[in-house]
C-alpha cells in the first residue's frame, strides 16, 4: 500500500476560523488529490496537484485553497470555515497512469460548528 | 459523482452472488475502477477495466462494455465482511470521477 497519512484525523472548530489539513505521502507520486465525502454525493474532487507548486481546481473548489511545496506534502486550507464544509476529507496520491489506482489516506473528519 | 450512476443500496445473503451495476458517460473514457470502502475507512482498490469483458480476481469480478457505458462488479460467495460501500469510478486523464457508491448489506 502507498504510504499516505493525513493529519489531523478528527477536528472540531468554529465557523469563521481557518483550518489546514495535511497530507503526506512516501511513494514519490506525482499526483495528489483532496476529496470530500458526503452522504449521497460520494467522493468529490476539491483540488489536485500534478507536481510541486502545480495545482488545479476540482468540481467543488470554492472556499478551499491548496499548496504543494514538496512532492510528499499537500495541504488543504479552509480560509474561513463554514458549516457547509463539515465533511470527511480524503487525500489520495497516484502516478496519473491510466491503469494505476489512487491510494487513499485514512481521512479527516471535520466538524464546523 | 458526475454522470456515474449506481444503485444506492443493495441487500444480499451470505454465500450468495450479487451484481452491482454502474453506468457512466462514454465520452473521454480511459478506464473504469471499482473501490471498496468499509464504514469509517478509506476506499481501497478492487479492480480495473479498460477493455471490454470480464476481469476476475478471486471472489470478485468486474465487467465492462465500453459501447454501452456499462460496468458491473460481481461478488461471489458473499461473506459478512463484504458489507461495505462499492464505488464505481471513471478514469479521465489523470483524474478519477467517483460515483456516489452502493451500500451493500450482507445478511446471515
Task: Describe it.
The complex is a heterodimer of chains A (113) and B (108). Chain A is mainly beta. Chain A contains no helices and 11 strands. In chain A, strand 9 (87-94) and strand 10 form a beta hairpin. The mean pLDDT of chain A is 94. Chain B contains no helices and 10 strands. In chain B, strands 1, 3, 4, 8, 9 and 10 form a 6-stranded mixed sheet that branches. In chain B, strands 2-7-6-5 form a 4-stranded antiparallel sheet, with no helix packed on it. In chain B, a hairpin with a 6-residue loop joins strand 3 (32-37) and strand 4. The termini of chain B are far apart.
SSE blueprint and pairings:
The complex is a heterodimer of chains A (113) and B (108).
Chain A: E1 4-7, E2 10-13, E3 19-25, E4 31-38, E5 42-51, E6 54-57, E7 64-70, E8 73-78, E9 87-94, E10 103-104, E11 108-112
Parallel strand pairs in A: 2-11
Antiparallel strand pairs in A: 1-3, 3-8, 4-5, 4-9, 5-6, 7-8, 9-10, 9-11
Chain B: E1 9-13, E2 18-23, E3 32-37, E4 44-49, E5 53-57, E6 60-65, E7 70-75, E8 84-92, E9 95-98, E10 102-107
Parallel strand pairs in B: 1-10
Antiparallel strand pairs in B: 2-7, 3-4, 3-8, 5-6, 6-7, 8-9, 8-10
Structure described in brief:
The complex is a heterodimer of chains A (113) and B (108). By secondary structure, chain A is an all-beta fold.
Q: Which parts of chain B are unreliable, with pLDDT below 50 for 5 consecutive residues or more?
A: none
Helix segment count of chain B?
0
Report the end-to-end length of chain A measured between terminal Cα atoms: 35 Å
Characterize the main sheet of chain B: 6 strands, mixed
Structural class by sheet pairing and helices of chain A:
mainly beta
Helix content of chain B: under 10%
Q: What value does the average pLDDT of chain B take?
A: 93
**Series of H and E elements of chain A:** EEEEEEEEEEE
Oligomer: heterodimer
From the spread of the alpha carbons, the general shape of chain B counts as globular
Overall radius of gyration of chain A: 13 Å
- Largest interface: pair, residues per side: A-B, 25 and 24 residues
Q: Give the percentage of residues in beta strands of chain B.
A: over 45%
Structural class of chain B: mainly beta
Query: What value does the average pLDDT of chain A take?
Result: 94
Main beta sheet of chain A: strand number and arrangement? 7 strands, mixed
Order of helices and strands of chain B: EEEEEEEEEE
Q: How many β strands of chain A by DSSP?
A: 11
- Secondary structure: number of strands of chain B: 10
The residue ranges of chain A in which pLDDT falls below 50 over 5 or more consecutive positions are none
Amino acid at each position: 500500500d502507498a504510504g499516505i497519512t493525513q493529519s489531523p484525523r478528527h477536528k472540531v472548530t468554529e465557523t469563521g476560523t481557518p483550518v489546514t489539513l495535511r497530507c503526506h505521502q512516501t511513494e514519490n507520486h506525482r499526483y495528489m488529490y483532496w476529496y470530500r465525502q458526503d452522504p449521497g454525493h460520494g467522493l468529490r474532487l476539491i483540488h489536485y496537484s500534478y507536481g510541486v507548486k502545480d495545482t488545479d481546481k476540482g468540481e467543488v473548489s470554492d472556499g478551499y485553497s491548496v499548496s504543494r511545496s514538496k512532492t510528499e506534502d499537500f495541504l488543504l486550507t479552509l480560509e474561513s470555515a463554514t458549516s457547509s464544509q463539515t465533511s470527511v476529507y480524503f487525500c489520495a496520491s497516484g502516478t496519473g497512469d491510466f491503469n494505476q489506482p489512487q491510494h487513499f489516506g485514512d481521512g479527516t473528519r471535520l466538524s464546523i460548528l | 459523482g458526475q454522470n456515474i450512476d449506481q444503485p444506492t443500496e443493495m441487500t444480499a445473503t451470505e454465500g450468495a452472488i450479487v451484481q452491482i451495476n454502474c453506468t457512466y458517460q462514454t465520452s473521454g473514457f480511459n478506464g473504469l475502477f471499482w473501490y471498496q470502502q468499509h464504514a469509517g475507512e478509506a476506499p481501497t482498490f478492487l479492480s480495473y477495466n479498460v477493455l471490454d469483458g470480464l476481469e476476475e480476481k478471486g471472489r470478485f469480478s468486474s465487467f465492462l462494455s465500453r459501447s454501452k457505458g456499462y460496468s458491473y462488479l460481481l461478488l461471489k460467495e458473499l461473506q459478512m465482511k463484504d458489507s461495505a460501500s462499492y464505488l464505481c469510478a471513471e478514469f479521465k486523464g489523470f483524474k478519477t470521477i467517483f460515483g456516489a457508491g452502493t451500500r451493500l448489506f450482507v445478511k446471515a
